[in-house]
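TASK: fixed-backbone design
INPUT:
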């Protein structure tokens, strides 16, 4: 029993550190984007367009990687993903510190995105399968909470160090994590499915209409989270101006406060889901709280700078059902497709930022910044509640089954 406990604790720690590196890199690019492009000789007039190109390459890599690593996790094992993904990420980030052109920068952002895409899904899947059905919610909450702290580390390192050094540090963390993972254990549930020659893939998920709708609902309940991060927080300076603020807020500080809130929210939602014995109730409560804070954020009139950052912190906290959301997705499907689901769903949610941003930009031109954001918010929250109502409660569900 003591051996099993040590193995569980080690697995939780390694999964948490993997997600820490994942979030570190996602946020680091936003922080060093301007100074890195200027160092490469990009003129001020092209900073936005070139930054969007690099961001799209990174997010495109995460979408591709989500599919690649998810299927590999169900065919070759969860541990193979945790080793392969962090290896690719580490090499890409170390190389990123040596780039001398935007073209090379873009290729390495694509590779880093592919590498990072497997971290959260494989980690949550492995933790869910090695822990008991009564306690696994605690494990996934810890993974998500530690991971979110990577954003704070990125904000500090991105400000204190040269942008090349910041990428070297990220790559170095990946190498260190790779060495720690070499002796990690594989999921017994996966080994059982492999012995029965029951390996999954995307086709197994889409074999029936009920599975397709279940998969779509898993994605929809997470979309409000990235509406908050990808629009309300990312474009904090623009929203500050639209709200009539005398002092325009800093995007970097808005991100930092939002992610501090996310870390606290993830830990709180994960533990409450265990105490209440329900994933759905906690997700519904946080989604409702998130809707309230969205309204407060968008309907505020000339708030002070401190009040604006408090609202960012509050939005982050209410968006802190990310751990519960990914756990729900992992628990909806059988062992032979669980890694594919848990890896692709969060990356598709991240990818949803692209259509959300395009919709916001179109509506902004017609209705203005605030009203445009309100329309997108209503759609996101409404779709998420519809999806959640029709989902199965998975707290305490036995995960040892096949699709």
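OUTPUT:
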């Amino acid at each position: 029993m003591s051996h099993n406990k040590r193995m569980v604790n080690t697995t939780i720690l390694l999964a948490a550190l993997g997600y820490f590196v994942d979030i570190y890199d996602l946020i680091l690019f936003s922080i060093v984007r301007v100074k890195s492009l200027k160092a490469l000789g990009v003129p001020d007039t092209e900073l936005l367009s070139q930054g969007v190109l690099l961001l799209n390459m990174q997010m495109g890599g995460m979408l591709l990687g989500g599919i690649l690593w998810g299927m590999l996790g169900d065919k070759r094992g969860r541990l193979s993903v945790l080793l392969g993904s962090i290896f690719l990420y580490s090499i890409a980030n170390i190389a990123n510190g040596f780039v001398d052109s935007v073209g090379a920068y873009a290729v390495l952002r694509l590779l880093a995105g592919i590498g990072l895409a497997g971290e959260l899904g494989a980690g949550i899947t492995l933790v869910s399968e090695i822990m008991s059905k009564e306690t696994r919610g605690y494990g996934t909450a810890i993974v998500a909470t530690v991971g979110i702290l990577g954003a704070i580390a990125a904000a500090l390192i991105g400000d204190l160090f040269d942008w090349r050094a910041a990428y070297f540090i990220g790559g170095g963390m990946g190498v260190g994590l790779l060495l720690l993972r070499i002796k990690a254990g594989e999921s017994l549930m996966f080994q059982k499915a492999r012995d029965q020659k029951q390996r999954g893939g995307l086709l197994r998920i889409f074999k029936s209409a009920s599975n397709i709708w279940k998969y779509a609902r898993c994605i929809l309940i997470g979309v409000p989270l990235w509406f908050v991060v990808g629009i309300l927080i990312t474009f904090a300076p623009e929203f500050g101006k639209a709200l009539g603020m005398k002092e325009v807020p800093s995007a970097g500080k808005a991100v930092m406060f939002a992610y501090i809130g996310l870390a606290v929210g993830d830990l709180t939602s994960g533990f409450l889901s265990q105490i209440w014995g329900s994933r759905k109730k906690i997700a519904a409560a946080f989604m409702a709280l998130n809707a309230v804070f969205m309204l407060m954020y968008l309907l505020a009139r000339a708030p002070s700078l401190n009040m604006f950052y408090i609202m960012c912190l509050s939005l982050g906290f209410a968006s802190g059902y990310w751990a519960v959301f990914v756990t729900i997705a992992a628990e909806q499907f059988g062992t032979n497709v669980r890694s594919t689901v848990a890896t692709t769903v969060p990356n598709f949610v991240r990818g949803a930022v692209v259509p959300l941003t395009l919709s916001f930009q179109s509506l902004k031109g017609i209705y203005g910044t605030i009203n445009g954001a309100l329309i997108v918010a209503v759609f996101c929250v409404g779709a998420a509640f519809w999806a959640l109502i029709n989902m199965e409660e998975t707290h305490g569900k036995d995960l040892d089954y096949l699709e």
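COMMENT: The two ends are 30 Å apart (CA to CA).
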